[in-house]
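This part of the workshop introduces the protein records we will be handling. Backbone structure tokens are a discrete shorthand for how the chain folds in space. Once this layout is familiar, the rest of the handout is easier to follow. The record below serves as our worked example for the rest of this section.
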Amino acid sequence: TIPYWAWENEADPWTSPLWDAVGGLGHGSSNQCVADGPFSSTNFALLSGQCLRRERIGSTPTASEVDAMLQTAASDSARFFDLLDFMHAGVHCTIGGTMCSLEAAEAPEFLLHHGNVDRLWAKWQQRSGQHAQAFSQPAGSSFPASPLTIGLDSNAFLDSANVLGIAVDYVEPAPKRGIASGPARKPQPDVWKASARQWFKIIGRTPTE
């Protein structure tokens, strides 16, 4: 299975155990160095020598927003990928700090965030055979030249059950026992979309809204 952080299911993304000092990634806010846990400034540094930073402001997309995205028709795959890309970008700069910079891939939460983005794509693919084969670029599109992609095209990665012979599995989170469910978190698309635009500006892309 692939580890992921299902940010859409959090009642409050910033009180998640993910950020605990023990068993988590440590606390960090106000764009300051992470102060505790295994990735604190005394235990961890980026390749640049700088500390890991987080902002943790605003909100992440909610379960209802994700559910609406997953209803996108297979024939409108370009729209699905635009929506997913916007959610992906919003979480980057909602976490902020290192995650909202060109050093984002060095943050430990980067893998968990991208694992969730891949999980949501897999859930959409599972809706039908048409969804499973839908892709917003022409089938067989080539990747930028890289030692990792020589001889490969997009078709090699469309089936999460067979990615170069590897079956990728996403185990859905179990309901939390003994915890009464409260009101669903209110969507704040204006907040996380503002964060998304910040991310697109950093990476030099013009988003499709």
